[in-house]
């Protein structure tokens, strides 16, 4: 997956743990999703009604402060919410700001707020070049709390992986087929996090095994990036190109749904 998506998953998972228990150890800046970040802060965006200009106010200087701020405001839960921007979002998924919009939904008793990340790359910061801000872009919204049927999503992802693996073996390379096969096998793996880079991505005890399998399968199937990635290919035959685009779009959509489903169905009730 992309670093931006990894981080928003981690913040959501560990944030729910903090809201439940009121404390966390070894999350920020120790978590691997922050290893290249100079800072990660949280801001409210206010508009000046006279000139219609925006002013950003830092409400928390880091994720732990933000969790504490949310708890003091009686926030109940954090949830992921994905918003499609274009029909072919998968083509831009490897670029910062591309691939659709991911929000953290902060749920309260009668409303929700939506927060979105902005990543700025500072070339002068060699080891930690990313400066990350999460901004509250929608306030007092109706509660979304998107929930999907996990059995249905698992079955659809499995079927899609079978189809795209077959396509890859016929029209691309065996390597791509192996990637999709491993993602499919993860749906039945008793230790689905095995071999995954971010082994501290979520609070494992807060999720059932089928959730973790779905999340890791989706993560391992995420082949969308820039040059040299799955979506950096084309085919001479029109019918092959059309099937490639259809399967790629379907897989990307199911990956987004799988991540949402896996994270939003947790044990923190």
Which structural traits does this protein have?
269 residues, alpha+beta, Nuclear Transport Factor 2, Chain: A, six-stranded mixed β-sheet, 6 helices, 6 strands
How would you describe the overall organization of this protein?
The protein has 269 residues and is an alpha+beta fold. It folds into two domains: 3-141, Nuclear Transport Factor 2, Chain: A (Roll); 150-264, no CATH class. Helix content is 38%, strand content 21%. The chain has helices at 3-21, 63-72, 150-171, 174-186, 209-220, 238-264; strands at residues 37-48, 53-60, 77-83, 101-107, 112-121, 130-141. A six-stranded mixed β-sheet has the order 2-1-6-5-4-3. A hairpin with a 4-residue loop joins strand 1 and strand 2 (53-60). Helix 3 runs antiparallel to helix 6 and helix 5 (209-220) runs antiparallel to helix 6. The chain is globular, with a radius of gyration of 19 Å. The mean pLDDT is 91.
Helix/strand layout:
Elements: H1 3-21, E1 37-48, E2 53-60, H2 63-72, E3 77-83, E4 101-107, E5 112-121, E6 130-141, H3 150-171, H4 174-186, H5 209-220, H6 238-264
Parallel strand pairs: 1-6
Antiparallel strand pairs: 1-2, 3-4, 4-5, 5-6
Helix pairs in contact: 1-2, 3-4, 3-6, 4-5, 5-6
Summarize the model shown.
With 269 residues, the protein is α+β, with helices and mostly antiparallel strands. The protein has six helices and six strands, in the order αββαββββαααα.
